[in-house]
Each structure stands twice: as structure tokens, then as C-alpha cells.
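Follow-up to my post from last week.
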Amino acid sequence: MEFFKVVGSRNQHKVVLFTLSTCAWCKLLKKYLKDNYVQYSYIDIDLVPENEKETIRKIIRDKGAPLSFPTTIIDDSILITGFRKDQIREALNF
Amino acid sequence: MTKISIDEVRERAEIDAKRNGYYLNPDPEFLSSLLEGLKQNEDRYNYPSCPCRLASGLIEFDRDIICPCDYRDADVMEFGSCYCALYVDEKVRRGDVKLGQVPERRPLEKQAKAFTAKSDKDQKIKTEINDQSVPRTETELELWYCKQCGYVAFREEAPLICPICKAKKEMFAKIKTTVSYAK
Ligand code: SF4
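User reply:
Got it. Predicted complex:
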């Protein structure tokens, strides 16, 4: 699976986003992280090959989360569904 | 195939909002981003599926999320905006109610199908080609309605274009009816 990496100085946590290339909330989240210098990786699921979609579905469902976008996973443990600024700030302490 | 212009996407949404007593998202940048998403989906799938949801790319699995999706009215009623916040109500437009992300109303099985439908189908087609004994299924007449103007047709498949408003085939959705009899 190919993730795109966005480099930032706030890089103490591993931040992974599952997004859609068309989704407005996903774009807001990417911008918000960038504006706050958060380093993150993302994958636009609508653009990946069909066989990779099932793998992504499992990753999200294994954490018991809905299949909504954006989905953020921090340090492989905290999962945040949707663009929730407060939850993101809290998880990343800024 | 001629691609749809962003102005056409915008105009279609404006007309639909007006007809239903809704408004389009008041934030111009957010609105543009959504309209862009709708255009991108229409360009690649041939129907404007919801920009905030994963589509399978197969119309039979995506019909419920062709914009305006089957969940819009319930979401605008309950939260003041649809799932993507393209359509909002008066209170959100005026800023009396703050816009937030609406929880997903689309059933999980349907969401999950979007991840697998295409690879499942490719697999099925491959098996069917090898298996000559698969019988042809009978077709049945069904009720279809145009999501753009409400025109209803009773036929095997939706018409190629809507005879009333000229919307294309993909804008037709099946009408599901349940009849129950009292004992
Ligand atoms: S959630 Fe809104 S933008 Fe998405 S398909 Fe439904 S009505 Fe359209």
C-alpha cells in the first residue's frame, strides 16, 4: 500500500489518515494538520487498486470503527472518525 | 463522453436545494470543494456519487449514494445538514446552528460493499465465463423514479434519459414498496 507522506516539525506521533480524494472534510483535515505542522501519512482510498480496499476495510473495522472518512489513526491505537479538531489536538497534545 | 462542467453541477444542486426548501453550504470554499468532488465522481463513474463516501463504481451498489442521496432528507431534518454538508437548512445557513460532521446513516453492510463489490464482481464474472451452465435470470418490471424531477417509470430498467427533465439513466432510483395485509 502506498501512503503519501507530508512532512512537518510536529512529528512525535505516527499519524495515519484514510481519506477520499473527493471529500471536503478530508481536505479540511489535511489542511488543518499541515497548518499546524503535524507530520502525517495519508491514503486516498478511492484511488487505490481494488484488491487493497479490502485490506483497508479490515484495518478500520478491526478497530471497531465505522467506514467513514476521514479516519485518523494515531500511534496505531487511537482512532478518530471524522474531522474532529478537539480530539486530534488532544491526542497530539497541542 | 462529454464531461460535466462545474457550473452544471452547481446549477443542478441549486435547483434541487430550492425545490426542497434547503440551501447550499454557505461557505464558498467548502461548497466549491464539494462540487469539485461531485464532478470528479461523475467524470469517473458517470454518476455523481456522494463525494464523502467511498463508491464501488458499480451503479447497482451505489444507487443510494447518488447525490442527492437517500439519506439527505433525514439528515437535514435531524442535524440541519446532509452528511457532506452540501445541503443545509435555514438555521445552519443563518449560522444559528453550528455545522458539524453528521454521523453516517448509510447501513454498514452497504458501506462495506463499496470496498469489495468490484473485486467480487470480477471474480464472479470469471467463474461465470468458465461455467456455461449458469442459467439466464428472468427480468422483472420495476418502478423507477427520476431523482432529479420525480418522474416515475415502470419497466425492466430505468430509461436511458428521463423523458421529462432529460436527466441521465444513472439519476434513476428504484422505488421499493412493501405491502402488508392485515389478518
Ligand atoms: S450527503 Fe449530501 S452531498 Fe453527499 S450525496 Fe447526500 S446529499 Fe449529496
